């Protein structure tokens, strides 16, 4: 991770340090760790326009805070408002919460602390703790169980959305579709990075998915104004669909969203199956290596 950040242009590194400095000044965290960076570059040449060479970065930060209330929403809003050349996705947790997670060998937090890039430490210590690898077999079993639980919820909401759509309850159908995408995102996140998200905002959930795959966000983040409009309807349905009388969805939009959400569920299933299969392979290789080491030890005694 550190080498990857070093490969960023100096200007991009300065911008990252700039937003980190602002977060430190505003929230006084204990640590800030970068656990991901997705970079894209756009180069254009034309006889009819000036040449452009632009880069855009999406940084993923874990902000460790001191005792007190959880401030993730505030930190995310501040980062979004103060970093305009790209994206910053923030996860914020209290230090004692992370300590407990590390003691339970949380795959997400162990990996972030073992492989992430420390950008700031209030105590000035730059060394990261030495943490053991999480048991591959337990990792696989947990990922499989989390997928089954979350995807079962997503399927239940999808059936309800389908019934509401066919019965003409379009507002209700889209609200239920929101729940389908939310639970599908939670399944993706739990399986791929083992993070237990309590985020309801679809945009933030899809942004977090980008740290392991660009495909989930692409389903809704199209390049057309129509894609943007449809996703806005879906995202707003969580609150406005329940509490604002002026929020109304027509049948055409509901059916367009239905097709997108159905595809999103299929994509979720495919991506999760592939990840669980990869985890299973890693577990089998680890078990075979352990068995070989035991046999060699027996022969040497």
Any overview of this molecule?
This protein has helices at residues 2-6, 10-27, 72-82, 95-103, 107-115, 136-166, 170-193, 202-209, 215-220, 225-236, 240-243, 251-300; strands at 31-46, 49-65, 87-94, 117-121. The chain is an alpha+beta fold and 301 residues long. The protein has 2 domains: 2-121, Beta Polymerase, domain 2; 136-283, Four Helix Bundle (Hemerythrin (Met), subunit A) (Up-down Bundle), CATH 1.20.120.330. Strands 3-2-1-4 form a 4-stranded mixed sheet. The two termini are 41 Å apart.
Summarize the structure.
With 301 residues, the protein is of the alpha+beta class. It is built from 12 helices and 4 strands.
Task: Itemize the secondary structure elements and their pairings.
Blueprint: H1 2-6, H2 10-27, E1 31-46, E2 49-65, H3 72-82, E3 87-94, H4 95-103, H5 107-115, E4 117-121, H6 136-166, H7 170-193, H8 202-209, H9 215-220, H10 225-236, H11 240-243, H12 251-300
Parallel strand pairs: 2-3
Antiparallel strand pairs: 1-2, 1-4
Report the CATH architecture of the largest domain. Up-down Bundle
Q: What is the typical, i.e. mean, pLDDT?
A: 90
Tell me the overall shape: globular
Q: Pick out the low-confidence regions.
A: none
CATH fold-type name of the largest domain: Four Helix Bundle (Hemerythrin (Met), subunit A)
User: What is the percentage of strand-forming residues?
Assistant: 15-25%
> Based on DSSP secondary structure assignment, what is the total number of beta strands?
4
| Helix-strand pattern | HHEEHEHHEHHHHHHH
Helix percent band: 55-70%
The N- and C-terminal alpha carbons lie at a distance of: 41 Å
Q: How is the main sheet built?
A: 4 strands, mixed
Cα-atom radius of gyration: 22 Å
Task: Provide the CATH top-level class of the largest domain.
Answer: Mainly Alpha
């Amino acid at each position: 991770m550190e080498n990857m950040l070093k490969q960023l242009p100096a200007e991009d590194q300065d911008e990252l340090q700039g937003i980190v400095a602002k977060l430190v000044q505003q929230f006084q965290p204990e640590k800030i760790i970068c656990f991901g960076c997705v970079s894209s570059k756009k180069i254009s040449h034309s006889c009819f326009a000036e040449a452009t060479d632009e880069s855009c970065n999406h940084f993923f930060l874990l902000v460790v805070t001191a005792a007190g209330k959880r401030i993730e929403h505030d930190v995310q809003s501040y980062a979004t408002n103060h970093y305009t050349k790209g994206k910053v996705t923030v996860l914020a947790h209290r230090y004692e919460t992370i300590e407990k997670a590390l003691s339970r060998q949380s795959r997400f937090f162990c990996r972030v602390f073992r492989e992430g890039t420390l950008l700031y430490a209030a105590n000035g210590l730059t060394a990261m703790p030495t943490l053991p690898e999480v048991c591959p077999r337990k990792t696989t079993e947990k990922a499989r169980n989390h997928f089954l639980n979350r995807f079962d919820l997503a399927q239940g909401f999808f059936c309800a959305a389908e019934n509401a759509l066919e019965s003409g309850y379009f507002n209700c159908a889209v609200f239920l579709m929101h729940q389908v995408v939310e639970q599908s995102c939670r399944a993706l996140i739990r399986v791929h990075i083992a993070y237990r998200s309590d985020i309801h905002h679809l945009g933030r959930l899809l942004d977090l998915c980008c740290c392991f795959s660009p495909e989930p966000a692409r389903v809704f983040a199209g390049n057309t104004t129509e894609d943007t409009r449809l996703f806005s309807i879906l995202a707003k349905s969580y609150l406005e669909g329940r509490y604002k009388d002026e929020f109304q969805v027509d049948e055409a939009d509901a059916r367009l969203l239905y097709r997108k959400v159905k595809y999103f569920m299929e994509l979720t299933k495919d991506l999760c199956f592939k990840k669980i299969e990869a985890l299973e392979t890693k577990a089998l290789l680890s078990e075979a290596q352990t068995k070989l080491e035991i046999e060699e030890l027996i022969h040497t005694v």
